[in-house]
Amino acid sequence: MAHPSKARLNTLLAFFLLGAGAVSIMHPVPESTVVCALIALAVLNHRRLNRPARIIGSIVTVLFFLVWITGWLEASDAMSRVTFLGAFLIALGMLSRAASRAPDIRSAATVVASRPRGTRYLFVTFGTHIFAIFLNFGAASLMATLLAQSRETLARQNAIEDLTLAMLRGFAAMPMWSPLALSTIITLSILPEVDYFQILPFGIAAGLIYVTAGYLLSKSAPAQTDLARALPPLHEKKVLARVVLRVALLVTVAFGLNQLAGLSMPESVLVAVLGFSLSWWALQTWAGSAPGLPEELAVTAETGVNEIVIVSGAGFLGAIIAKAIASFDGALSAPPDIVIPALIALVPVGMVIGGLWAINPIVSASILLGVLHPLVPEAALIWLALAAIIGWGITAASSPFTANVLITSRVMGLEAGPLVRSGNIKLTCLALLATGLFCAIAAFISLQR
């Protein structure tokens, strides 16, 4: 348990960052106070910081003071992005904690994991996909833990690798469309010209195609299973339905705020997630299953400090890079239109290659989008956004260093590197080829209009 004074400081810092992010939707927030709060949070929880967080945090801190001293910071939207992302990560952490305490979430996961052999792959894939919207990386841990309880049976059926890949692929499809995914939030914050609903149909289609292709490429042939035995009984269907309805409600609220309140999609998602998290926490507190709000904020900030530092830092880097390129004011010649589709097609490839070198897609996407945003004509920005969002999902299941791959493979008793190289390389290559061709052709057509 954390020292009481440390817990109180974490509570205050989390409350400030959360409040600053919410207020920044309507009014600018002093940048120096937000930076001081983030630095204090990182220093206070420095023992929890992993290597990527330490590196990115150090680079961003030095860069911030350089651009602040020169007065260049005011001309960019870097700090507004950092403020928003810090608040969003805390709100998302609270949502994940509330979901992890919900009995019906675990019950639904148990239903998914207990399906018979012939339908288990698909149930695990789509179950992980739905749970990831609420739990993020916690979905991988939850599903893997439940499946690992019957590991001996799965080993006799030669199903361990297939079901592990099913979890990875189900998780990877989530960043391709979900408005709550970091892929969507970061991409749209860097490319504000792109409307979420422009890319939503393509993202859903990409996710469906990805998991379908993964199913067709799975090693074990589906066993013949009686349909009545494969489908869960009525009371278990109700458990699954409650989880799906919660996801649908959260997404609907975000969509409604976007359409009715005039908020951007990232802002709508922040408000929806924050409201949903606090409401869920309040109900759990009333039922006696959740701690008080100060403890909830303290634990969320402490356990999520790596993500807060990396995501906020990557957002800052992306904004500064974009501003640096845009500041050349014509001195830097824009690439010819014929080259733009190729650059867009290479974005997912760059993200996957970066993932193989342990570069988080948060960082690679922020840098690539920051570089290309000023160079790509507005007509083709939708395809740049789509390439980054789909590339993010592909990277999530193809890099042995992403959190979901590391967690899932460890719990299932497999090595992460060989798993994604031998088990998922074909799907990764096909997905990169299909995504690159589609986005390149679409960008080329858009530039001809």
Automatic annotation (TrEMBL):
The chain crosses the membrane at residues 12-43, 55-73, 79-100, 121-148, 168-192, 199-217, 239-257, 269-288, 308-326, 338-360, 380-407, 427-447. It comes from the Bacteria. Keywords: Membrane, Transmembrane, Transmembrane helix. This is Uncharacterized protein. It comes from Roseovarius litoreus.
